[in-house]
Write a structure and sequence with these properties.
alpha/beta, 38% helix, Rossmann fold, ten-stranded mixed beta sheet, disordered N terminus, six-stranded parallel beta sheet
Length: 456
């Protein structure tokens, strides 16, 4: 499939908005092309690269580095970690990248254009503010901060530096399957939203070991009640953000409780958590999170008066109610049986839609992890912001921040020139909701989430 056709198909999906007719046309267009990667990867060897610096080479930092190695548009040119053993490891695994013991020295490297921050949340604020001041594009892992004050300061700093692209690490916002679902969920095919449920089950301790006592304490910040956003902030926020994003909702309050069942090793943070989010019109979201058992893995399911939609990994299904109105395209779509009920397969890059029911189905080609697509979006969008700002300065001289913000919104928004990704405001709001949920768990009280809380 040509690059031009890929771009047209991607725009079809994004522009579908709330129109079922447009959604059907987008499905048909992709079927006629035989599937493929029309809604996601738009970068290749010819995409102008944005040189990346990585701050934090722990387990997640290493995962980020492995994914960058697969992205020609995001070459890793520098790594910083204050722990000498991790810095030496980064040099072994990525010998072309310069190593810096201090992140300030990495930020002073003029070869670094974009910075990816993969440290603990309580370290984010200082690094983000310094990176923006240094003129770097910034990708900050979620949650942005371990406190509301830190998260708000980061979001404000991003707004005050519009010449640089800022992306919050809400990976599902860029993941092709979930982005493919966005116009479908907004189309009304679900009917009136009733309730949603998400779960994340994985038997893993979170505890890390080190021969250095000070290092071991530092890397186990997830188990420290003063520093950790808990399961609600480390894991649950991604699923809650996805439901809120799909259904265009914001919770009004959250209740929850947690306990330590499996990992009774002196930790202060519960290994099992249950949450209930309240919304207007009676809608609710329940969430199960545990480090104590792996059965049934992780998924999100949203129930409406016409259908239910389940997302599990890179797959999704729609289960229609018997009295739901006929949409049309689902007659030809591939179906799979779950829970003794046929589910219509909703898959990015794959379909069975065709004239006369002709099957055109092929397996989805989206095989990368969500972090890959999130980093791809960061590199691509950073280049788009960089070149657009350069055009503005060349034409009109040095502009003020308000002019830059308006120009970027007009030029990149109007032409739909960005890959899907979470911005600073979205990262902040998801952060607030997660911290309120963690507060509910720790206090075992109902915690309200006000409009003022969600405003920067």
């Amino acid at each position: 499939m040509s690059e031009q056709k890929q771009d047209v198909n991607r725009r079809d999906f994004i522009a579908a908005g709330s129109s079922l007719a447009a959604m059907m046309q987008a499905f048909k267009a992709q079927a006629q092309e035989g599937g493929g990667e029309s809604t996601a990867r738009r970068t290749d060897d010819s995409t102008p690269p944005v040189k990346m610096g990585l701050i934090g080479y722990g387990s997640h930092g290493r995962e980020i580095a492995r994914n960058l190695a697969q992205l020609p548009s995001a070459p890793l040119v520098a790594v910083s970690d204050h722990y000498a053993a991790m810095l030496r490891r980064s040099k072994r695994e990525h010998p072309k990248a310069k190593g810096y013991a201090k992140y300030q020295d990495l930020l002073a490297d003029k070869n670094v254009e974009g910075v990816i921050i993969a440290t603990a949340p309580h370290e984010h604020k200082a690094i983000v503010l310094a990176a923006l001041k240094a003129g770097k594009h910034v990708y900050c892992e979620a949650p942005l901060g371990h406190t509301l004050a830190d998260a708000r300061a980061i979001a404000k700093a991003a707004a005050d530096n519009p010449k640089q692209n800022f992306q919050a690490g809400l990976q599902f916002r860029s993941e092709p399957q979930r982005h493919f679902m966005f116009p479908f969920m907004r189309s009304g095919a679900l009917g009136r939203p009733v309730q949603a449920r998400t779960q994340w089950h994985k038997k893993t301790s979170w505890r890390r070991v080190s021969p250095n006592a000070a290092r071991e304490k530092a890397i186990n910040w997830r188990l420290d009640k003063q520093l950790s956003p808990g399961l609600a902030g480390e894991v649950g926020m991604h699923q809650v953000d996805l439901v809120n994003y799909f259904l265009n909702l914001k919770p009004l309050a959250v209740s929850g409780f947690g306990s330590t069942i499996q990992w009774r090793d002196g930790r202060q943070v519960p290994d099992t958590v249950n949450l209930v989010f309240e919304y207007e019109n009676g809608f609710s979201l329940t969430q199960e999170l545990t480090l104590s058992n792996s059965f049934d893995g992780e998924y999100e399911v949203m129930h409406g008066t016409n259908s239910a939609v389940m997302l599990r990994g890179s797959q999704a299904w729609m289960y229609k109610e018997a009295d739901a109105p006929l949409i049309g395209w689902e007659v030809y779509a591939r179906k799979e049986a779950h829970y003794d009920k046929p589910g219509v397969v909703l898959a990015a890059g794959a379909t069975t839609l065709g004239k006369g029911g002709k099957k055109l189905y092929q397996e989805s080609t989206f095989t990368q992890t969500p972090i890959f697509y999130s980093l791809e979006a960061f590199a691509y969008n950073s280049h788009q912001v960089k070149t657009t700002v350069a055009d503005l300065i060349e034409a009109f001289g040095e502009p003020d921040n308000e002019t830059v913000t308006d120009f970027l919104k007009e030029q990149l928004g109007r032409t739909n020139s960005l890959l899907p990704a979470a911005d600073a405001v979205e990262g902040y709001q998801a952060n607030v909701i997660a911290l309120k949920a963690n507060e509910a768990v720790n206090t075992r009280k109902r915690v309200e989430i006000t409009a003022a809380d969600l405003t920067i």
